Amino acid sequence: MGLDFLSSILFATVVAGTPLIIVAVGELVTEKAGVLNLGAEGIMCVGAVAAFAVAYHTHSPILGILAGMVAGMAMSLLFGISALTLMANQVASGLALSIFGVGFSAFVGKPYESVALASVPLVPIPLLHKIPVLGPALFNQQGLVYFSWVLLGAVAWFLYRTKAGLILRAVGESPVSAHSIGYGVVRIRYQAVLFGGAMAGIGGAFMSVFYTPMWVEGMVAGRGWIALSLVVFATWRPLRVMIGAYLFGGCMIMQMFVQGSGAKVTIPAQFLSALPYVATILVLVLISRNRGTIRLNSPASLGQTFLPDA
Amino acid sequence: MKTCNLALAGALLATAALNAAPPAAPVKIGFIYVSPVGDAGWTYQHDLGRKQMEATYKGQVTTKFIENVPEGADAERIIRQMAQDGNTIIFTTSFGYMNPTEKVAKTLPNVTFFHATGYKSGANMGIYNARFYEGRYLNGVIAGKMSKTNVAGYVAAFPIPEVVMGINAFARGMKSVNPKAEVRVIWVNSWFDPGKEREAAMTLIAQGADMITHHTDSTAVVQAAEEKHKEKGTWAFSYHSDMAKYGPTAQLSGTTHVWGDFYTKTVKEVLDKKWKGTNVWGGIKDGMIQLAPMSKSVPADVQKQVKGLEASIKAGKFHPFAGPVVDQDGKERVAKGKDMSDSDMNAMNYYVQGVASAFPKN
Prior knowledge:
The complex is a heterodimer of chains A (310) and B (362).
Chain A: H1 2-32, H2 40-58, H3 61-85, H4 90-109, E1 123-124, H5 134-138, E2 140-141, H6 143-161, H7 163-173, H8 175-180, H9 185-211, H10 223-233, H11 238-260, H12 269-288, H13 291-297
Antiparallel strand pairs in A: 1-2
Chain B: H1 2-19, E1 27-32, H2 42-56, E2 61-66, H3 73-84, E3 87-92, H4 98-107, E4 112-116, E5 125-130, H5 132-146, E6 151-156, H6 161-177, E7 182-187, H7 194-206, E8 211-215, H8 220-232, E9 235-240, E10 251-257, H9 260-271, E11 279-282, E12 289-292, H10 300-314, E13 325-326, E14 332-334, H11 342-345
Helix pairs in contact in B: 2-9, 3-4, 5-6, 5-10, 7-8
């Protein structure tokens, strides 16, 4: 029981953390380009419903993910037009997108509330999944879990090891300088926003096609907002996003395991449910004490509108 | 043709007598829902009831509903708006609407209000609720008979008496046929978060529960059991609605709410001007609680035993909280030979024996 138990805690933690990683990494790239898109929650909802609908009609989870991705990009394009081309306030545009996405997904998702989707089988990785404890927890998972790891590595490599990544960061640090040496700030920001939207869409797809698997209004249940706070929690470092996401997932799962063990624990359930959020705030406070880290990693022009001729 | 005309004339006369107003105008009836109607769950059951009532009085009434109304300040505005739109009978279907409903009811004496699951009533405000625990007890008996691990998992929303009552009834039912049985509870602190509900169910299954039920609004828990059925032999009991569609193999039975007859009867009372206040707490006897059809996986002798118990509850011969009721700490709450009173049930803030988890302290 002991080891099995540990393994199932780990397994559930990884699953709970995965949508957060995918969405947060997308948002991180967007923010690194200096754009604050608060629309993640709404994009996730629309991605979730699009993915569910396509997966339901085509019986293909892969096509579902693609649909979620495309829907997410379409949503973030709306944000881009408003915040980048029309230069509306980024915070307001993002919030509007969130509210719109939650409502819109409920509206178009009505016919899908009554249908169930077969759960997608896990993908064991040869050999690795036979490792005791870690194998069944980490290497016999949903395909998107592996995707989240690859994504993390790829984004970390892109941001810190490639020229394109350097340019993207430059755009986020000082759009005026980047513009003056000839980089298309708005074009690069559009790309970053679209990438963020695509990832949020995939995160939504994970929720509706792999995680629950079903579609109901409100099923994203605030995970988009958690992903946003994870980016700050991670001080804009990709690998810390992973730590944060698993910490968050782990807190949620642990409190459930404590409750489910039938042990006579007298900690109020409300406190246990609040634990992940308390942990987020705690780490946030700890990190903020060191102003250097924040300044070093947070994009200097985050949330500021860029006027090419200013 | 003649009868048709007669019926029409009768209806016209009746409505004229009722309203003393132009007979054509149907009475407007409004419903306030806390969550989307969807395809299963608490609100879905209320909406089934609304449709049944509307169909019964076709032409006499029109109904309207507003879904997804948050409990709190917003609710008051929406309830008031609904009354101002000309709805003269208004049903508010969630516990959190109690104070807003009461507030609006006091200022609008010509509108009749009905509030579900609360305890505040008034001259123009009736209250109604269902004895969910009766169904829970019967589900518990099935669980006790069929569990191989002797552990049942219960995914619950908030530790309020209504929910605690269900857990205790389930545990008593289970323990009545299986002395080794224990019920473990996970509070997810949300009425509706399918992701979390599913995680909680999976957690309970991983920790050895082979009987799973829930007091939350989505179908996620039944779906989780369905998914794990092959591997772990997990069975599920649905709540609110019959969720067999989501757990065709795993669902053994469930506790289903039926509001239609109540709505039909109550609306008639108001239409006939015979309404004198409502304080209904209906159970299996009143048809407000039904056992979801038992699946063919439930052995015939168990089915027979449950049917027998159901009949005794219906006849008033058996009460799921018949004494002795002993709580977790061994304290006797109801003495032998007595049934727990309604007010004691509505104030339940402890677990009975058979529940393994500790009661959440506030």
